[in-house]
Amino acid sequence: MSSKSQAMILLLILTIFSFTFTPSSSDSITIYWGQNTAEGTLKAACDTGLYEIVLLGFLDVFGEGRTPSLNFTGHCRGSSCITLESEINHCQNNVIEVYLSIGGPSGTYSLGSSDDAKNFADYLYTNFLTLPSQKKKKNQVGPLGDVTLNVPPELSIVFWGLPAAPDAAPGGGYIPPNDLISKVLPHIEETCSTHSCGGFMLWDRFHDIESNYSNQVKHWDEQSACRFVTQVSKASLGSVSTT
Ligand SMILES: *[C@@H]1O[C@H](CO)[C@@H](O)[C@H](O)[C@H]1NC(C)=O
Ligand SMILES: *[C@@H]1O[C@H](CO)[C@@H](O)[C@H](O)[C@H]1NC(C)=O
């Protein structure tokens, strides 16, 4: 075997290795949960193994003197959401990050001043982001109990927000899984080579069950890795047979 083809095979192995094993966040799926009881429990959503991140929606009352309040429509509201504590722990123990989404379509919220914003930030930090030991020190039980929610590792991170079914976006914007994989993903991969990407962010768990969307896009990276490996193998076989 010539040294040229040996070098080619080494290159091939290195390339496959880096292509397949570099942790890439462009393929991870974030799902909104909390706006429809028919979507099932948070624990069940985490147990599907489809999602890397769950966004709890929503903390939909805050600012300008309002007492902040959770509203996971139908599942629980306000202080009754403490029942989610064990489910959040379950998700995090299975290496699924749990974020809190603030705002939403129907709440009552606004921030009136920078002091207002600071107070709200303090509220979020104390109730959802400090460690249980610090909460205990302050004798504080947050609306979600002792959980410490996750935060994105970087401040500027791109998530690709998508409706999980046509009726999740009555105004349009639904992209069928096949189109997503063949037409949109190449551009996403390009963007993610120079920006921090958080992957897909789907609205929402209910519509994902209905359409099986994330199941269909979940393994696109393996599919494209297979195509890539096949192409490189063909190319290197060609090169080996001609040297
Ligand atoms: C909770 O959210 C739902 C859906 O967004 C909304 O219809 C409902 O009015 C909210 N409940 C309260 C008490 O804000
Ligand atoms: C969902 O999609 C996956 C992957 O394409 C497929 O294996 C599975 O059978 C689908 N499930 C349903 C209920 O359609």
From TrEMBL:
Keywords: Hydrolase, Signal. InterPro entries: GH, Glycosyl_Hydrlase18_Chitinase. GO terms for biological process: defense response to fungus. This is Glycoside hydrolase family 18 protein. The keyword Signal applies. It comes from Medicago truncatula. One of its GO terms (molecular function) is hydrolase activity. It comes from the Eukaryota. One of its GO terms (cellular component) is extracellular region. Residues 1-26 form the signal peptide.
